[in-house]
Design brief:
The protein is built from six helices and eleven strands. The protein is of the alpha+beta class. Helix 2 packs across helix 3.
Length: 220
Amino acid sequence: MTLQICDIAPDFEAETTEGRIRFHDWIGASWCVLFSHPMNFTPVCTTELGYMARIKPEFDRRNVKVVGLSVDPMDNHSQWAKDIRETQGAAPNILMIGDTNPTFSQLYGMRPASTSGTSEGRTPADDQTVCNVFVVGPDKKIKQVLVYPMTTGRNFDEVLRVIDSLQLTAKRRVATPANRKQGEDVIIAGSVSDEEAKKIYPQDWKVPKPYIRIVPQPGA
């Protein structure tokens, strides 16, 4: 199964480092980032979890819950956490799922349906497709899918930038231009007519082309 933007994120029950959860219930009215790892004790993932630990307050501030998924057993997460604290200066502070059978990674299309057996004896290369980021909205729909090669660390600053855009455009009838950061100008959505736009933005807008209508970020 290939998950796409606007699909409902598959629900599941799982044991985690903070007890058993049902995914949709755990998300509640929040946003969610689910990111996955091909194996514990891998160098790139170690740096990712350390960086995530340092910037987690930024996700909290945006009402975003974060959960990590690893194909390794729950009982070695604690030892990996010690390594992460030692090498990265911060210990993991997010919920972690141990997907030793290919249950959840298959559910999210990260492993072939034909994959069977436990993680025992498997190498990171065997599970290199399990290196993804899913952003899920409060409506439980997938808003963003990122797939990374195992050798490239993920850019969580970019994930935050996208979440800022998603949360803004969910409330306002705007879109955000390339490389746009919070507080910078936005684009009036194409679904808004000029007549409607005049009521919403009486201060007028910049029009480099008829189909590009630029205004300051609403509420900024």
